[in-house]
Each structure stands twice: as C-alpha cells, then as structure tokens.
Amino acid sequence: MEIKHARRLPQVFACALLLLALGGCGDDSQGESETGAECRLAIVTDIDETLTLSNDEWEKQKADGTYDPKARESAVELVQAYADRGYFVLYLTARSQTWVLSGTGETSTDATERWLVEHGFPMDPARSRLVLSEKLVPGDAARVYKAEALAALQGEGYTFDYAYGNATTDIGAFADAMIPKAATFIIGVHAGEEGTVAIDGESWSAHLAAHLPTVATACGPS
Ligand SMILES: [Mg+2]
Asked: What pTM value is reported for the model?
C-alpha cells in the first residue's frame, strides 16, 4: 500500500496543477472507498500496434472497410484482467475521427468501437472509454494530443496506475501524465526506451502470466 501511494505522488502533483489551472481535480484516494462502479483507478492503452499486431492492420482496414485487423495474442485477456480487477479502461488512440473506411463508409470511431467489441475487449460505458483524436495528429502532435487527453481524465479524478503502448509518442505522453516508468509497458521496436518496461516479442501472453498476478484489485466490490 505504501509503495502504491508513493507511485501516485507525481499524479497527485499533476492534479494539484490541474486544481490551480482548472479549478477542479478528482480525489486520488477514491480507490479505497468508492464502489466498483465509481472506482477511478485506471489503465490506459494505445490501440495500433499495441492491441493490434501492427500499424498496417489499421491501414488495411482503412483501405478496405471489411478487413478485420488482427489482435496481438493475449491482448484481450490482458485488458480483461484489469477490468476484472475493477480498473477503468481508457482506450486512447491517435486515430482521427475524420477518417472514413473505404468501401463501407464506416467512421473510424464506429469501426474502432466495433473492432473492440467484436474481439471481446471490455467495453462497458461506465467502466471504459474510447478516445480518438478530433483531427489528424501527425508525428509528435500525437504525444501532445494523448497527454492532453490523459490530463483531461485526471481532471475528472482518474488515476492511471498502468499504461500500455508501442510508440515514442506513447512513452512521451505517459511520462507527461506522470505515469510511473515501472508501470509503463512498451511493446515493439521501442520497448524499454526511456526507462519503460520492455515487452519482448509480439505477444502479451508472458506479461499477462507474470505481471497480472501482482496487480491488486483496484476497488472494492460494488
Ligand atoms: Mg500505437
């Protein structure tokens, strides 16, 4: 418990800044007292090349709206394991809401939500949120966009205990949000950069087996 609170101190500081800037910030201690439905302990995960096998999967779907992007092995089970422990799940992607899939005309927001549901990722309106960018955010702009999205949720009282991504912009945004490096898991070619935890290989299976047993239940039962 002491370690967990110590890990949250930077986010408490971030909240203090939000309190000054915005006039409001959530209670960081809610995890011990709120019911499961209200619990604001959270994880954040990128989608492309983190939950999917590669960025190419989304490119293929954009080019052909009937294409079904391949998920990484154990990606669903990993996110579900956090949901089972009471964590709120933020799916945070730099996919632009302005994109429309070729052939089907489906919006990127609808296609992304459908993919998550069809593949069995936890999608509970009260316990998860899908956030896409309102506009194209090329390059380092994705870091700023993701950091601002995380700050907005922190302003709502969410505390991000764990973060998952694959890109340098993920690493930067998670750092901007004061998420501990030891709880920032990066898969792919940038795994382990900037002091993050490297996930070797293409699968989440080993991480799921080794890490999740160490994750405590976020909040009490509702
Ligand atoms: Mg990605």
From this structure: 0.85
Q: Which residues are within 5 Å of ligand 1 (an ion), measured at CB?
A: 46, 48-49, 166-167
Which CATH number among 3.40.50.2300, 3.30.470.10, 3.40.50.1000, 3.40.50.280 corresponds to the domain 2-26+38-214? 3.40.50.1000
Helices 141-155 + 168-176 axis angle, to 10: 30
Average pLDDT per block of 10 residues along the chain, 222 residues long? 43 44 40 66 98 98 98 98 97 98 98 98 97 95 98 97 98 98 98 98 98 90 54
Count of Cβ atoms closer than 10 Å to residue 68 Cβ: 13
**Ligand 1 centroid to 30 CA: how many Å?**
30
Q: How far is the CA of 210 from the centre of ligand 1 (A)?
A: 23
